[in-house]
Amino acid sequence: MITAMNKEIIPDNWYNVVPDLPEPLAPPRDSKSDISSINLLNKILPKEVLKQEFTFKRYEKIPDEVMEAYEQIGRPTPLIRAKNLEKKLGYSGKIYYKYEGATATGSHKINTAIPQAYYAMKEGVKGVTTETGAGQWGSATALAASLYGLPSQIFMVKISFEQKPLRKTVMNLYNGNVVASPSTLTAYGRKILKEHPDTPGTLGIGISEAVEYALDNDYRYMVASVMNVSLTHQSVIGQETKKQLELIGEHADVLIGCVGGGSNFGGFTFPFIPDGDDTEIIATTANEVPKFSKGDYKYDLMDSAGILPQVRMYSLGADFVPPTIYAGGLRYHGASPSLSLLINKGRIKSDEVTEEEVKEALRTFANTQGIIAAPESGHAIASAIKYVKAHINEKKTIVVNVSGHGYLDLSIFGEKK
Amino acid sequence: MITAMNKEIIPDNWYNVVPDLPEPLAPPRDSKSDISSINLLNKILPKEVLKQEFTFKRYEKIPDEVMEAYEQIGRPTPLIRAKNLEKKLGYSGKIYYKYEGATATGSHKINTAIPQAYYAMKEGVKGVTTETGAGQWGSATALAASLYGLPSQIFMVKISFEQKPLRKTVMNLYNGNVVASPSTLTAYGRKILKEHPDTPGTLGIGISEAVEYALDNDYRYMVASVMNVSLTHQSVIGQETKKQLELIGEHADVLIGCVGGGSNFGGFTFPFIPDGDDTEIIATTANEVPKFSKGDYKYDLMDSAGILPQVRMYSLGADFVPPTIYAGGLRYHGASPSLSLLINKGRIKSDEVTEEEVKEALRTFANTQGIIAAPESGHAIASAIKYVKAHINEKKTIVVNVSGHGYLDLSIFGEKK
């Protein structure tokens, strides 16, 4: 049982945008001819997660145990009016921010890690496994597994494992087992290590290792983003935001979020889709990863290794490598199929911001609102500031999703450009 | 105007324990014979802060602008039932934690920094200044000053300045000017640098520099802890906790907090004092800083340099140097006079925990509740776990103050003891 006050704000159901899309979603395709990557999903995902990935149902009841875990990790997260920022910008409209950095793991990732680990536990598996880059997803996976008494095996891209030792510390504090990938724990990892002993690792290698580890050890694979089920779980963000706005008598004229794979963005904005077109929705990417303006809308690999199925999405190509690494969570080459479709149909607009705009926005947000936001979330803030400056005389209500805090990314302010 | 929902929980007034103490508080004394340190306070503190330091009034109205700033930086902070921790400990009672780590600067320090900077701004001064050790207080000062458009000059103990560059980054993001102390900005700093060029610096040197800087530049000095006014401002913590408990129909049987100078502890527990004796209150220190068990209750210097007045308190001696530095905020040699009196009269009990117990408690709290608590707050959690184990069959409601998060202290888990 959660408290009455929280029950008023945390939704009872997850919202799935699929039935409300302007046209049916293109189905996933096998990535390789010799092995069915769609059949593979049957083996590596908990049954309930697989069901939710392909469902056409608009609502899915959140199990009581998951509801309670959401409350334990800090939900509902706050929706705060950024009065100091408004003043600094000389804006006569309103700016609100939803702060997912207030969750226990410091980002939105925990919202889908919890139900995935819960369903894995219910199905009696031995543990959960996944890959992680910068470590946000690995942290969420480790904590979620710990909450349900499951071990977790996390394959962390080797270069990040070496450069971000504190993320490893966090995962260890959450009872996670973390190895640098490629590792000696899998045949695939050992093969790569033999052929390329000095490789920095990639997310593709990490996914391959996690999938092999899941198959060999009766573990289940945890899905970070891109796939529909993760966006559905993240819908707690947008549903809470709607309820919080309703309680203070506000209506969102503009929603702005950042896009890596699309899970914080979809979770934040999709619950507003069935309400009609009077809320403007803006998806912001890094200037260096211009998936919506320069990517193609096509079938492409979800992961560079081609383990997971192909999906139809905006993509810069699965082998795309952006130039800088200051916002690790936004480096992904594509975007969730449902988000891609809504962009393609013009319901959601896109924006791009530069590293310089992001750093300036992070500084401004810190010295006005006090929040040290994650570099990824800094893109949403920078985009909101751009919007305000371009519409300074309009009195709109803008809501920005600040998807995580940046306490473990402070080093970006120490470097010279 | 703050929102109705928050107005229900954030108190309208600060609570001052002085009129409710079992006997009058011993007055402060000058520390040196040649200069009146009490007169000095008149010159370096905002008038309103000085008035609140020596008031006998039970309640002081929180100005609307401060109320609004409290909301902006994340008040009310959450009170969460630690169900996963209860389960892990096999406790049939209840454990709640109040989470001050959820404020924008990540600790309770901002609760008094805001009103002090506000009063300084109202009085038209040029800026604010203070000393900081690990950097938590400096961060709170910098943000509070930024919120009211004031510059801040922060003297950071040189060894910490060098060892904790990320804290400096945070202060800079909050518009704070930070220098290593001793610095060349003051005559006192230049003198020390000439005599001891390799000194690691001390809080005493930092205080001396900040006081000189305030006097020479029409700045005001910001008081971190120990002095009564800071505990009064921190009473928002305990008053919110009482209200939040009331809203869910709970009564606190036991309150546990950690003690450095006493501000988070006093702020959390003192609002329960006028309600009578049926709430047990426990003040926990580090085993290495046994001020209540091995200190004397006597007049002693507040700061090693003897700049500020002497007060009657439990003290290990102003030149006490604890052996380890893993919890910088608990290294202080004394404790606030009002807290010391309540300990001396037996109304508040004390406890001590070891570094090993603290690290274990931090791990347990992380992998059950997901919160990476500050090492200082880890002492309160460790003490609560000890209490539960010693009273495993009682069904009490225990409330712990988790005064800050530990994202910038993760390195303590990397070191070998």
UniProtKB/TrEMBL annotation, chains A, B:
Q: Does the record's keyword annotation contain Transferase?
A: no
EC number(s) of the enzyme? 4.2.1.20
A cellular component annotation (GO) from this entry: cytoplasm
Q: Which UniProt keywords apply?
A: Amino-acid biosynthesis, Aromatic amino acid biosynthesis, Lyase, Pyridoxal phosphate, Tryptophan biosynthesis
Q: Which residues form the Tryptophan synthase beta chain-like PALP domain?
A: 72-404
Pathway(s) it belongs to: Amino-acid biosynthesis; L-tryptophan biosynthesis; L-tryptophan from chorismate: step 5/5
Write out the function statement from the record: The beta subunit is responsible for the synthesis of L-tryptophan from indole and L-serine.
According to the record's subunit comment, the protein's assembly and interactions are: Tetramer of two alpha and two beta chains.
Protein name stated in the entry = Tryptophan synthase beta chain
Q: Which organism is it from?
A: Ferroplasma acidiphilum
Q: What is the lineage of its organism?
A: Archaea, Methanobacteriati, Thermoplasmatota, Thermoplasmata, Thermoplasmatales
